[in-house]
Automatic annotation (TrEMBL):
The lineage of its organism: Bacteria, Pseudomonadati, Pseudomonadota, Alphaproteobacteria, Hyphomicrobiales. Keywords: Heme, Iron, Metal-binding. InterPro entries: Cyt_c-like_dom (IPR009056), Cyt_c-like_dom_sf (IPR036909), Cytochrome_c-type_DH (IPR051459). Residues 6-104 form the Cytochrome c domain. One of its GO terms (molecular function) is heme binding. This is Cytochrome c. Residues 33-55 are annotated as: Disordered. Gene3D superfamilies: Cytochrome c-like domain (1.10.760.10). Pfam families: Cytochrom_C (PF00034).
Amino acid sequence: MAGDGAAIARGAKLYAKHCAACHGARLEGQPNWKSPLPSGRLPAPPHDASGHTWHHPDGVLFRVTKEGAAAIVGGGYESDMPGFGEILGDEDIRAILAFIKSTWPERERAYQAEMSRREREKTQ
C-alpha cells in the first residue's frame, strides 16, 4: 500500500480530517514539540522528515495511531494522542501512514522501511 496512489490520496484526506489539527496541515507538528507543556505532556510532533515518526517501524506507527501513544508506551505515560481505533478502520490507518511516508525524502523512507523489515523478521 505504501506506494499506492489511491491509498495515498485517501490518506491525505483522512489526515486532513483527523490528524492535521494537532500535527499540522503540512505535517509540521506543534511548536516546541520536544519540550513538555505545562501539563507535562509533549506537544504533537511533526510527521515530516524533521520529526521522529520515520524512526519507528510500521507496527509501532499503526498501534500508536489505533490505540494511542499512552497505550503503547505504558508505565503511566500520559499523552494527548488518542487512539483512533474507534473512528478509523485498519485500512484508513494504513492509508494515513502511506500518505505520511510519501512525503519523506528517500533517506528517511529507506530507513523506516528497514526498521519495518526488521520488525517483521522478529515477529515471524
